[in-house]
């Protein structure tokens, strides 16, 4: 079993997020180091999945509502102005499921068996996800043109 | 014979991607949101192939697969699993349960079709016969509607009838882009406006991306209607094509 503190969580997240954007949305995103205090302001959508087993944790994908709309249009092959709010939520939920699923697989392969939850999506304005007591907490910023998004990972070893 | 495909996924987006992937083939795709709904649809639909997600609420894909394999009349239906988890244990589990193949998300529709073709034969859809109308024709993957210079009532009624036929042809051919070329119009009367509004309404209903080509006078006129107030007018067909 690998030492949990040595797992390259940022690398796992960066690769899987780039792959999801490239394959499902035909969009290029570049990963960047995020300030620990980074938050998206204004109207936003956050998709989260949890994993539970020898490790527990969450992966949350944060995007602005408007970028969520662009992502939904790209993934569904529609025009941006045709996209309804429930379609944005569905797409962000699915993106968090794919990024989280990849992370879960990496954890299982590293000797930390766990199961993945279905995604849950929160949308609104000026809210913040706070979670405490984790052994690892990483934030990775992603940029597509002028749009900044963020993937956040919380993880704790249980067994 | 039309192939029946059952797509079981809680995500509307993924179901849409799966349906779109099969749209060029002689297939009927039916959708279910979870394992329970999927199982109940199998007896009615009798699918030739099932595309099954794993992580779903109510009943997940692994449970549904287990129940499917326990039913003598269902166990031989080929199943391709879609999973966001590529871990060895996960893959071993679903392979042992008798799936024919699996795809790890993220995936592209064309890659899914490649996998499907190894299991069942897919026949491309027959190209629909073009409308015998001088006003309707397809360029690349775009349905063109070219309004004539002079539009009397009989001509416009004929165009409206042909437009309704063209919607069916577009749906069969998987076309979702249309350019309404009004650049030859010499007179913009209420009958023409009525036809244009009817085209706009149908395109919105059937989620067809519509672009306009015409004069600035047409643009000004269309700004006055709620249904068309947000449309931009392009100077040429080439310019309109670039906006897709």
Your description of this structure?
The complex is a heterodimer of chains A (159) and B (244). The N and C termini of chain A lie close together (12 Å). In chain A, strands 1, 2, 3, 4, 5, 6 and 7 form a 7-stranded antiparallel β-sheet that branches. Chain A has 3 helices and 7 strands. By secondary structure, chain A is of the alpha+beta class. In chain A, α1 packs across α3 and α2 packs across α3. In chain A, a hairpin with a 1-residue loop joins β2 and β3. Chain A has one domain: CheC-like (Chemotaxis protein chec), CATH 3.40.1550.10. Chain A is globular, with a radius of gyration of 15 Å. Chain B has 244 residues and is of the alpha/beta class. Chain B folds into 2 domains: 115 residues, 3-Layer(aba) Sandwich (Rossmann fold); 107 residues, Transcription Regulator spoIIAA. In chain B, the strands form 2 sheets. In chain B, strands 2-1-3-4-5 form a 5-stranded parallel β-sheet, sandwiched between helices. In chain B, α7 links the parallel β8 and β9. In chain B, 32% of the residues are buried. The interface between A and B is medium-sized, with 33 and 26 residues.
CATH superfamily of chain A: CheC-like
Query: What spatial order of strands do you see in the largest sheet of chain B?
Result: 2-1-3-4-5
Class from helix and strand fractions of chain A: alpha+beta
Q: At the first level of CATH, what is the class of the largest domain in chain B?
A: Alpha Beta
Please state the CA-atom Rg of chain B, rounded to the nearest Å.
23 Å
Bulk shape of chain B: elongated
End-to-end separation of chain A in angstroms reads: 12 Å
Profile the largest sheet of chain A: 7 strands, antiparallel
Averaged pLDDT of chain A, please?
89
Number of domains of chain B: 2
């Amino acid at each position: 079993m690998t030492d949990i503190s040595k797992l390259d969580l940022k690398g796992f997240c960066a690769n899987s997020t780039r792959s999801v954007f490239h394959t499902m949305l035909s969009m290029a995103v570049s990963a960047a180091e995020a300030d620990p205090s980074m938050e998206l302001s204004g109207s936003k959508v956050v998709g989260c999945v949890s994993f539970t087993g020898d490790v527990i944790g969450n992966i949350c994908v944060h995007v602005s509502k408007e970028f969520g709309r662009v992502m939904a249009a790209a993934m569904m092959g529609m025009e941006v102005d045709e996209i309804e709010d429930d379609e944005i939520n569905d797409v962000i939920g699915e993106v968090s499921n794919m990024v989280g699923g990849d992370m879960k697989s990496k954890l299982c392969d590293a000797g930390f068996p766990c199961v993945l939850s279905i995604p849950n999506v929160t949308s609104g304005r000026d809210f913040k996800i706070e979670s405490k007591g984790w052994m690892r907490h990483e934030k990775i910023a992603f940029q597509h043109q002028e749009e900044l998004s963020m993937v956040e990972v919380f993880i704790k070893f249980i067994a | 014979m039309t192939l029946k495909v059952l797509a079981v996924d809680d995500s509307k987006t993924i179901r849409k991607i799966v349906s779109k992937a099969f749209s060029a083939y002689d297939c009927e795709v039916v959708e279910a949101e979870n394992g329970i709904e999927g199982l109940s649809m199998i007896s009615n639909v009798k699918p030739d192939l099932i595309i099954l997600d794993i992580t779903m609420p109510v009943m997940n894909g692994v449970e549904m697969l287990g129940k499917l394999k326990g039913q003598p009349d269902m166990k031989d239906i080929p199943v391709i699993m879609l999973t966001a988890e590529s871990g060895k244990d996960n893959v071993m589990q679903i392979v042992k349960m008798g799936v024919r193949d699996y795809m790890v998300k993220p995936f592209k529709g064309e890659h899914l079709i490649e996998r499907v073709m190894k299991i069942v034969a897919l026949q491309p859809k027959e190209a629909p016969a073009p409308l015998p109308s001088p006003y309707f024709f397809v360029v690349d993957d775009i349905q063109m509607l070219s309004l004539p210079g002079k539009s009397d009532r009989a001509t416009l009624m004929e165009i409206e009838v042909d437009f309704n036929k063209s919607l069916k042809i577009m749906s069969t051919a998987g076309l979702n882009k249309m350019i309404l070329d009004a650049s030859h119009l010499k007179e913009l009367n209420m009958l023409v406006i009525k036809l244009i509004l009817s085209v706009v309404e149908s395109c919105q209903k059937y989620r067809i991306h519509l672009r306009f080509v015409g004069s600035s006078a047409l643009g000004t006129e269309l700004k006055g209607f709620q249904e068309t107030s947000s449309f931009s007018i392009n100077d040429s067909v080439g310019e309109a094509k670039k906006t897709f």
